[in-house]
Amino acid sequence: MTQSKVSGASTKLRLTAGLGALALTAAACSTSAGRTSSTGSSSSPQTLKLITWVNPPAVKALQAIDAEFEKKYPNIKVSLQTAANLTGPYQTLLQTTVDAHSADIVSWYPPVQPLPLKPTRSNMSTWQFWSTNNVFQPLNGSSWLNRMKPAAVKAETYKGNIYGMVTGSYQEGVFYNKAIFAKYHLTPPKTYSAFLADLKTLKSAHVTPLFDGLGNVGPLYLQFLYFPLMASVWSPHVPNKTLARDLESGSVKWTSPSFVKVMQREKQIAKYLEPNYAGVPWESMPGSFAQGDAAMLLDGSWDLAAIHKVNPSMQVGFFPLPGSNVAANNVAWQNNNLTFSVLRQAPNKPAAKKWLAFFASPAIYKQYVSITGISPSFTGSAYTGFSASVLGSWFGRGVHGSTVFPTLSPNNSYWDQPANWPTAQLNLLNNQFSPQHVANLYQSAWKTS
Fold this sequence. Notes:
The protein is an alpha/beta fold. The chain has helices at residues 26-30, 56-72, 89-100, 126-131, 150-155, 178-183, 192-204, 223-234, 243-249, 257-270, 285-290, 304-310, 349-360, 362-372, 386-391, 421-429, 435-444; strands spanning 46-53, 76-83, 105-108, 157-158, 161-162, 165-177, 210-211, 296-300, 316-319, 333-342, 375-376, 399-400. Strands 3, 6, 7, 8, 9, 10, 11 and 12 form an eight-stranded mixed sheet that branches. Strands 1-2 form a two-stranded parallel sheet. The chain is globular, with a radius of gyration of 21 Å.
């Protein structure tokens, strides 16, 4: 979501792609749960280390916040270390950092909750395993928790302990160029049929209808298609109205006709993507859209800041990708993103707690929201930045991804692992797999709770 965005996300943005390579470190950390920091002095020079992935708006915001933090606490130097790509270098950085206890604050997405119905090491993501096995320091009693939205607190709570700060949620959907829409007399579609009609109109006028980029991130960024389609086409028809739980319990199967329909519509919409979407780097998405290369962009709200920077005069609108012909079923996709956790064996836990409190202070946090385009997890402020204006009534609203898509474990069978699930979707769009074949692959060795 954030991602490597996400995410977006996206980030940006709730498939925990890439966690399969993260090794188990909780046992080593749990043995020293009571260790205290030796760097708690308020006057001696100190270093606070924070790691995160390369999400340009978030990194820019953190750099600005770190500089202000250092002015308030001149004896503390913040070391911000980043690595690109959640599914590669950052994954490695996170693992080695946790193994060596070499940072104070680490970040990931999504947060610990919701856990699987019956959590075990084989069906939890590694971040969930860490969060439930003494790797992170409980943050109970922190003053900023009083201002955090209950859902955000719940997302990082396990057995009464709060193990992280969810910094907000990113929304995914369709961002559109208002000038192009006006030129071709289009209005934001509210149904699948209306969306297809707009796509056809643009293509017949030799305008690229949709833009996406899988380069340097892989098929994970097809999430902008399959996630909202699952929410609008499949979720309304499951027994308990919570698709993720129904899949986990086995009351709903991947071979459901509704999921086959999801993939059929995904293929239909993908025909209107730019021809080389699989090779276009994700980093170029906001810039290409801002320069008018396509009428619409499939993306997360984390990229709005970059769009605005490239073309400040561009009028951008937003609508949820409409997969259903029942307008009420088409809602924005939303995911918690960029969770900060303090390592239990962090070299400088007192400084880490000071930094989190500083980050959560109203003026600083409002700055973070404005720069990143994230929807806030804290109450008490009015947000009027570019992201809020683009998202309009959808700012901070939408279906939460955890209710639609189940947590995938790296211990699942091949096609049900987070790194491989999206690959089958790309094979679908490349006509290597049929929708029914993909459904069979997912279901063939699916583990239910």
